[in-house]
C-alpha cells in the first residue's frame, strides 16, 4: 500500500509539474487590467525568453493563503503583492531574497521602491496615492478631519477597515489629530472620531468601483479613494475634485518578489527586471494600467490624469510602513469592530 | 448479491464518488477548520465567536431578518396565491409567469436596480417627497430596511409558488362550506386554509428562511459593511482577514441553522398531518 501511495504521489507531483518546462514561469498577480498586462508585458516577455508564462490571479489574502498551502512544493515563481502582504509572506519564510545584480533596472526606480520591506526581499513596481475627493462647491475639504464635519459627514463614504484604503484613510485622519500617534500606528483617535459619526456616514465601502455610482446618484459628496479609482469619478458630470488636504495624502506600494523554492529563479529575476524596465513601465502607464516607479518614464498630462505620476506627487505621499501595518492591523480591526462595525 | 443489485450499485457509484470527492470531502476539510485551534481539536473557535459582541450582533441580525422576511413573505404570499387561484386559468398562467420572471434575472442585476430605486434621488424618495410624506430624502440604502426589501423581493416567488401549488390542491368546496357554516374569513383562513396548505408553507418557509440566511449579494450591495450579515461576515473573514477558522464557524452555524429549520418545519407539517 505504501508503494502504491508513493507511486500515486509521484504521479500526481509529476502531473502538477508537467506543464512547467525548464524556463517557463508561473506568476501570481492581481486580477485587474490583465488585457493590458498581456499586451505590454506577458507577450513581449514570452517572445523574448521563448518561454511560456502561466498567470494566476487573486487578491492578497487568497494568494497568500495559496502560497502558504504550497510552501513545501511551490508552484509560483514570481508574486506581486502589496508591501504589507509581501512582508507578511517574507516573515513566514515564503519569499527568497532578490539578487539585485540580476535586476539592473532597479537602479532606475524611485528610492522608496528599492527595498520597501527590507532585507532586499522585494522591489516596488507600482504605487498609488490615496486622498480625498469631493464635489466642488458642495463639500469643503482643507483637512482630513473635514471629512467628518457637519454638512459633509452625512454625505460621506469612507473605505472600510478591511480594504487596502481603509487603514490609509484612518492614518491620515490620525495624522490630522495627532501625527506622533499616527506614526506609531495608534489610530485610536481616528477610529473614535469615525465611531462618533458612524450613523451619519452613508457607508463604509468595500470596493472603490462603488464610488462613481454613489456620487452620481447624489448619495455622497465626499470620499477617500486611491488614485487608480479617480478616472471613474473624474468623468462624472458632478464636478468632483481630487483634493490634497493640508496633511498631504497617503498611498500604497505594490511589490514584486521571488518565491522561496521557486524553480526558475534566474528567469524570475529576468521577468522582474523586464517589468521594471522603462519600456514596459511606459507602456503600462500609457494604457492606464499602472503608475510607473521607473523614473525615466515620461507621460503627458492627459496620460497622467488617472495615475500617480512624477517625483512631486511621490514626495507628497505618506506611505504607511508595512511593518506598522502588520504590527497594528489586528488592533485596528478589533477597535473598529468594537466601535464602528457593530 | 444479485445481478440487479450489483448493477444498481455500479450505476450509482459514479455519482456517489463525484459527490464524495467533489463536495463532501472539500466541505468536510473546510468545516473541520472550525473545530481546530492551536491547542488541537476543540470548540474554542465557537466559544470565541459567541463571546465576540460584533459576531453576536451579526448572528442575531441575520436570524431576526431571516424570520421577518419569512413572516412577511408568508403573509404577502398567501394573499397573492389566493388572489391568483381566484383568477381564470389563462390569467393564472400569465400571473405565474410574471411571478417567475424575476427568478430568471441575475440577483446582482435585480439588487443593483434597488440601488437606483432606494437612493436619495431614486423613485421611492421622489414619490415620498412628491406626495408630501417627507420634506427631505430618507436614508434607506445601507440600512436593514434596504436589506429587508431586497430579500423580500428575492424570495417572494419561492414562497408563493409552493403556496399556490397547495392552494390548487385544496378541495374547491371547503371555503364555501365554511362560509355556509357561518365562519368569518379569518376563521376560514386560520382553521381551514392554513392547516390544509401547511405543507406548501413549510416548503416556502424553508426556502425563504434558508435563502435569507445564506444570501450574499443582496446584503453586500444594499447593506454594505454597516449591516453585516453572517454571509457577508464570512466573506470578510476569508477574503480580508484570511481567518478560515472564524469562516468555518460561520459556515457550520449556517448549515446547522438551515438543517434545523428544515427539520423543525418538516416536523410541524408531519405532526399536523398525523393529527389530521
UniProtKB/TrEMBL annotation, chain A:
SUPFAM superfamilies from the UniProt entry: Periplasmic binding protein-like II
Gene3D superfamilies for the chain: Periplasmic binding protein-like II
Signal sequence coordinates: 1-22
GO cellular component terms, A-Z: outer membrane-bounded periplasmic space
GO biological process, one term: thiamine transport
GO MF term (any one): thiamine binding
UniProt KW keywords: Signal
PANTHER family: ABC TRANSPORTER SUBSTRATE-BINDING PROTEIN, THIAMINE-BINDING PERIPLASMIC PROTEIN-RELATED
Protein name per its UniProtKB record: Extracellular solute-binding protein
Organism expressing this protein natively: Mesobaculum littorinae
TrEMBL record, chain B:
InterPro entries in UniProt: MetI-like, MetI-like_sf
GO cellular component, one term: plasma membrane
Main location: membrane
SUPFAM superfamilies noted in UniProt: MetI-like (SSF161098)
The UniProt record lists the keyword Transcription regulation: no
Domain of life: Bacteria
Membrane topology term: Multi-pass membrane protein
Subcellular location: Cell membrane
Keywords, ordered alphabetically: Cell membrane, Membrane, Transmembrane, Transmembrane helix, Transport
GO biological process: transmembrane transport
Ranges where the ABC transmembrane type-1 domain occurs: 59-265
Entries under PANTHER family matching the protein: ABC TRANSPORTER PERMEASE PROTEIN, INNER MEMBRANE ABC TRANSPORTER PERMEASE PROTEIN YDCU-RELATED-RELATED
Family assignment from sequence similarity: Belongs to the binding-protein-dependent transport system permease family. CysTW subfamily.
Name of the featured protein: ABC transporter permease
Organism annotation: Mesobaculum littorinae
Lineage: Bacteria, Pseudomonadati, Pseudomonadota, Alphaproteobacteria, Rhodobacterales
Amino acid at each position: 500500500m505504501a508503494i502504491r501511495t508513493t507511486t500515486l504521489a509521484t504521479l500526481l507531483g509529476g502531473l502538477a509539474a508537467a506543464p512547467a518546462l525548464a524556463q517557463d514561469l508561473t506568476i501570481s498577480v492581481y486580477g485587474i487590467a490583465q488585457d493590458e498586462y498581456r499586451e505590454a508585458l506577458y507577450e513581449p516577455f514570452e517572445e523574448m525568453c521563448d518561454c511560456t508564462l502561466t498567470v494566476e490571479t487573486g487578491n492578497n489574502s487568497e494568494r497568500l493563503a495559496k502560497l502558504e498551502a504550497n510552501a513545501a512544493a511551490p508552484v509560483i515563481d514570481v508574486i506581486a503583492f502589496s508591501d504589507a502582504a509581501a512582508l507578511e509572506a517574507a516573515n513566514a519564510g515564503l519569499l527568497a531574497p532578490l539578487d539585485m545584480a540580476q535586476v539592473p533596472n532597479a537602479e532606475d526606480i524611485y528610492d522608496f521602491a528599492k527595498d520597501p520591506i527590507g532585507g532586499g526581499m522585494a522591489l516596488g513596481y507600482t504605487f498609488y496615492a490615496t486622498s480625498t475627493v469631493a464635489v466642488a462647491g458642495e463639500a469643503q475639504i482643507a483637512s482630513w478631519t473635514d471629512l467628518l464635519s457637519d454638512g459633509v459627514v452625512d454625505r460621506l463614504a469612507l473605505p472600510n477597515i478591511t480594504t487596502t484604503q481603509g487603514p490609509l484613510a484612518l492614518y491620515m485622519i490620525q495624522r490630522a489629530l495627532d501625527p506622533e500617534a499616527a506614526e506609531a500606528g495608534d489610530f485610536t483617535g481616528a477610529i473614535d472620531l469615525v465611531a462618533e459619526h458612524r450613523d451619519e456616514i452613508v457607508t463604509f465601502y468595500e470596493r472603490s468601483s462603488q464610488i462613481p455610482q454613489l456620487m452620481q446618484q447624489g448619495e455622497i459628496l465626499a470620499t477617500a479613494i486611491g488614485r487608480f479609482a479617480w478616472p471613474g469619478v473624474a468623468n462624472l458630470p458632478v464636478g468632483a475634485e481630487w483634493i490634497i488636504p493640508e496633511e498631504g495624502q497617503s498611498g500604497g506600494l505594490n511589490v514584486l518578489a521571488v518565491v522561496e523554492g521557486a524553480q526558475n529563479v534566474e528567469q524570475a529575476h529576468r521577468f522582474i527586471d523586464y517589468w521594471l524596465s522603462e519600456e514596459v513601465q511606459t507602456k503600462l502607464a500609457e494604457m492606464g494600467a499602472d503608475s510607473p516607479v521607473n523614473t525615466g518614464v515620461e507621460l503627458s498630462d492627459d496620460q497622467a490624469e488617472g495615475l500617480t505620476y512624477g517625483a512631486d506627487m511621490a514626495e507628497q505621499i505618506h506611505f504607511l510602513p508595512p511593518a506598522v501595518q502588520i504590527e497594528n492591523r489586528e488592533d485596528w480591526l478589533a477597535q473598529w469592530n468594537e466601535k464602528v462595525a457593530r | 448479491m444479485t445481478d440487479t443489485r450489483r448493477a444498481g450499485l455500479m450505476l450509482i457509484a459514479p455519482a456517489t464518488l463525484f459527490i464524495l470527492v467533489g463536495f463532501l470531502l472539500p466541505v468536510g476539510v473546510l468545516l473541520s477548520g472550525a473545530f481546530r485551534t492551536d491547542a488541537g481539536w476543540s470548540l474554542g473557535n465557537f466559544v470565541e465567536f459567541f463571546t465576540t459582541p460584533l459576531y453576536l450582533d451579526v448572528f442575531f441580525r441575520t436570524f431576526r431578518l431571516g424570520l421577518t422576511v419569512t413572516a412577511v413573505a408568508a403573509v404577502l404570499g398567501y394573499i397573492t396565491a389566493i388572489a391568483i387561484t381566484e383568477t381564470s386559468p389563462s390569467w393564472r398562467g400569465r400571473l405565474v409567469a410574471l411571478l417567475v420572471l424575476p427568478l430568471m434575472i441575475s440577483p446582482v442585476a435585480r439588487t443593483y436596480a434597488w440601488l437606483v430605486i432606494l437612493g436619495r434621488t431614486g423613485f421611492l424618495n421622489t414619490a415620498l417627497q412628491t406626495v408630501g410624506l417627507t420634506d427631505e430624502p430618507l436614508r434607506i440604502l445601507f440600512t436593514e430596511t434596504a436589506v429587508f426589501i431586497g430579500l423580500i423581493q428575492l424570495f417572494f416567488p419561492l414562497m408563493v409558488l409552493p403556496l399556490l401549488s397547495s392552494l390548487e390542491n385544496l378541495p374547491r368546496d371547503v371555503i364555501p362550506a365554511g362560509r355556509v357554516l357561518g365562519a368569518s374569513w379569518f376563521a376560514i383562513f386560520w382553521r381551514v386554509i392554513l392547516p390544509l396548505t401547511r405543507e406548501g408553507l413549510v416548503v416556502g418557509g424553508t426556502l425563504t428562511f434558508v435563502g435569507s440566511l445564506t444570501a450574499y449579494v443582496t446584503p453586500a450591495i444594499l447593506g454594505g459593511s454597516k449591516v453585516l450579515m453572517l454571509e457577508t461576515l464570512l466573506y470578510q473573514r476569508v477574503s480580508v482577514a484570511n481567518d478560515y477558522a472564524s469562516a468555518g464557524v460561520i459556515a457550520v452555524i449556517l448549515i446547522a441553522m438551515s438543517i434545523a429549520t428544515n427539520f423543525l418545519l418538516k416536523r410541524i407539517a408531519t405532526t399536523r398531518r398525523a393529527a389530521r
